[in-house]
Amino acid sequence: MLKMCQNALRALAAALLLSLTAATGALAQSEPIKVGVGLALTGAGAPAGKMILASLELWRDDVNAKGGLLGRQVELVHYDDQSNPSNVPGVYTKLITVDKVDLLMGPYATNFTAPAMPTIIQNNKMTISFTAIGINRHFNYPRYFSMVPVGPDGVDSFSIGFFEVAAAQKPKPQTVAFLAADAEFARSAVDAAREQAKKRGFRIVYDQSYPPSTTDFTPMVRAIQATNADIVYIGAYPPDNVGIVRAANEIGLNPKMFGGAMIGMLITPIKVQLGPITNGLVIVETFVPSPKLQFEGLDSVMQRYQAKAGELKTDPLGYAFVPIGYGAGQILAQAVTETKSLDHDKLTAYMKATTFNTVVGDVKFAADGEWTKARQLTTQFQNVEPNNLDQFRTGAKQPILWPPEYKSGETIYPYENARKK
Question: How far is CA 40 from the centre of its chain?
């Protein structure tokens, strides 16, 4: 009798354990897959950060409408780093150790991604950054991927096309002036541009930097004007771009070619605000509206983003960052679906072996996590009108000059000819 009771108790315990295990498994399956991301949502980096967040929310909603990933809904867990690089490690530590997110994305931009990397590496996590340049040259981390199409050219991709266009002009310009913000990306962009200029035989007649806190650019622009440089190449952030372009317009700076890595010119409200005084500027963009860049799903994403942009108080068009953010989500979703896994090593192996079809085109990653082929776009503002947002919807006012396979317009040269339009 005692033995029968013992056997019954064992059977009951086994049944309870099985039931508990099944319930735990069911609970895990019902819990959402958490995707963590840190973004600049306030401060100087907010215009881009807000666009990326909006694109990820669109991606999340699209994935969940189709049943989620691995039968589970996707939840975005995001924090504002306040455009302060010193806040970034804490953000990613919290995502990993407190929120215990399943997957990571971000951060945005070189200045914010670099300080996140030690935390990500220490925890053996995989991430897809959005617009960081050349990060893995410093870390050589196998689980890192980047959505900015600089490819093997790295930061040189912000000047290769610019100086290819300059060298093709007749008569060829001879001299160049450089001006850069004394901050990581701007310095790196101008360092690379300096080498690209030297390779093509341009002579440097001015080469200066300025503190990021600078608000009066007139003295520097006058100094550039005094050199009579044929080419002026700028490495600058959004607030600086406005100040430099306005100062150049006010004093009548008139080189043969003017532009560079002017990140502020990627922001639509700045384009609209400056209007016709942008005419002639040659800048490098990651993505623009163009008949040469029509990829599956892009129109739908952009239309839905633009319909919400007013409510979100974000860039009304969003071409510079929204396709990149949504494309990163597409890549992550495909990797999870095809591997049937959230294991970061399995996801990494799949992502390095696969070509992804996304709203920004086909993406193939190299061993360092960068694109296998660069696709930065050298563009020029042409025939821009005052106070007209709609003129920037099609790309007609900012045609692509380089690379040749994406070219959608001809260079107006010299700069003064574009200013007459």
Answer: 12
